[in-house]
Amino acid sequence: MMHPVTASSDASRGPVPQRGTLIIVSSPSGAGKTTLTRRLLEEFAAATPGLAFSVSYTTRPQRPGEVDGRDYHFITPAEFEHMIERGEFAEHAFVHGNRYGTAQAPIEAALTAGRDVIFDVDWQGASALAARWPNDSLKIFILPPDLDILASRLRTRATDAPEVIERRLRKAIEELGHFDEYQHLIVNDDLNRAYSVLRAVYLTRRFGSADRPDVAHRLGELAAVVEGNRGSGAEAHARRLVGRA
Ligand code: ADP
Ligand code: 5GP
């Protein structure tokens, strides 16, 4: 049976742009989400339809090498309070004793224009964003190969004081406990392998899994990478890490 032609599929109006997606990436501190999300941005920020990083607001001190407005908007606790009072946050949370929040307006504007937005937020932020935009959200969790490697990556990064690193390690187990709230789990053992999975997850969400003449990426192959990752035992690995095995 033919389906009736609806107003939204009327060719005279031109194609309706696909709404953008919130690509929400979480992990315990040090597991590699910043490295992986930066790489996805490097590859796709200038592509069509475009991928942008959601620059959060925070009250934590700026680290060497971080740029205000690129990595975070660094603001005072009083400014953060004002933003809450004005209802400007889609979500906000305390993480490691500091405040972090995501502004609502830029996200809604990007999604409506068909652009994807990538987020580096903790499990609380991920949960709040997915509740606010249930149909637009894709939640991805990055797992460390093991907890000793996580500790050594945090120490090697050397961007935090020793007592801050210890606090982050204690919090890592709490964050790991939320792995089952995510649609995809990626073990960041080898960086190139982990990136190839993240890339495949992103592209199949954006363009589907069947190859299309208008899309240069080999979507069938990418879908196989996503399937392979599902069957790779990442879930059992996550359970072992949180001591649930
Ligand atoms: P997060 O954003 O999750 O806190 P980062 O991306 O800052 O983590 O990574 C923490 C440290 O580990 C960085 O020094 C980074 O270069 C390093 N790193 C990330 N992924 C890998 C990997 N697969 N192998 C080795 N080192 C890695
Ligand atoms: P860091 O201080 O290492 O940059 O980030 C600490 C934690 O805060 C990370 O788990 C990061 O994902 C999280 N985070 C960063 N921005 C936000 C935000 O806007 N909202 C929430 N809920 N968490 C955030």
- The overall strand count is 9
Distance between the termini: 51 Å
Broad shape: globular
Could you report the average pLDDT, rounded to the nearest whole number? 89
**Measured on Cα atoms, how large is the radius of gyration?**
19 Å
Summary keywords:
disordered N terminus, four-stranded mixed β-sheet, globular, Rossmann fold, 245 residues, 9 strands, binds adenosine-5'-diphosphate, five-stranded parallel β-sheet, alpha/beta, binds guanosine-5'-monophosphate
Task: Produce the secondary structure layout.
Layout lengths: L21 E5 L6 H12 L6 E3 L2 E3 L13 E3 L2 H9 L3 E7 L2 E6 L1 H8 L3 E5 L2 H10 L4 E7 L3 H11 L4 H15 L7 E4 L3 H17 L11 H12 L3 H8 L4
Parallel strand pairs: 1-7, 1-8, 2-7, 3-4, 8-9
Antiparallel strand pairs: 3-6, 5-6
Helix pairs in contact: 7-8
The structure holds adenosine-5'-diphosphate and guanosine-5'-monophosphate.
What features would you describe in this structure?
By secondary structure, this protein is of the alpha/beta class. Helices cover 42% and strands 18% of the residues. The chain has 9 helices and 9 strands. The chain has helices at 33-44, 77-85, 105-112, 123-132, 147-157, 162-176, 191-207, 219-230, 234-241, and strands spanning 22-26, 51-53, 56-58, 72-74, 89-95, 98-103, 116-120, 137-143, 184-187. It has a 5-stranded parallel sheet, sandwiched between helices. Helix 7 (191-207) packs across helix 8. It starts with 21 loop residues before the first strand and ends with a helix. The structure holds adenosine-5'-diphosphate and guanosine-5'-monophosphate. Residues 27, 29-35, 153, 156-157, 188, 190-191 line the site of adenosine-5'-diphosphate.
